[in-house]
Amino acid sequence: MNEDLTVTRTLVVPAAELSERFSRSSGPGGQGVNTTDSRVELSFDLARSPSVPEWLRARMLGRLSGRLVDGVLTVAASEHRAQLQNRGAARERLARLLRDAAAAPAPVRRATKPTKGSQERRIAEKKRRARTKQTRRSDGWD
């Protein structure tokens, strides 16, 4: 799979910047699990990648700081028996992580006051609820 990894329409990671490592996987596979290197580790050096713009790199490094080791992002996939399926799963997982890290920050919410009508509805509902509970009470110990 020497294909470029498409993260967004504007961000594409060249295949040359991705490194794959294969190892034996635990889990399903029967006797073949001991002989097949089906587990895939896909690594991308985010800190030194020339394909990521400088302004975007800073945002992504900040958001992925807990997952990076020396600026390198690594994902592993071993849920499938076939190496090819695990390669696809690892690529999809890496693309999703990078896409989420590259997303624009949410707009800042401006706090507003509740409307007069919503305040009146809230108070009316509280009074209605209090009347309902009042009817359930007994005045003494029966």
UniProtKB/TrEMBL annotation:
Gene3D superfamilies: 3.30.160.20. It comes from Saccharothrix violaceirubra. Residues 11-136 form the Prokaryotic-type class I peptide chain release factors domain. Residues 124-135 have a biased composition (Basic residues). Residues 100-109 have a biased composition (Low complexity). One of its GO terms (molecular function) is ribosome binding. Residues 100-142 are annotated as: Disordered. This is Ribosome-associated protein. NCBIfam families: PRK09256.1 (NF006718). InterPro entries: Pep_chain_release_fac_I, Pep_chain_release_fac_I_sf. One of its GO terms (biological process) is rescue of stalled ribosome. Belongs to the prokaryotic/mitochondrial release factor family. It comes from the Bacteria.
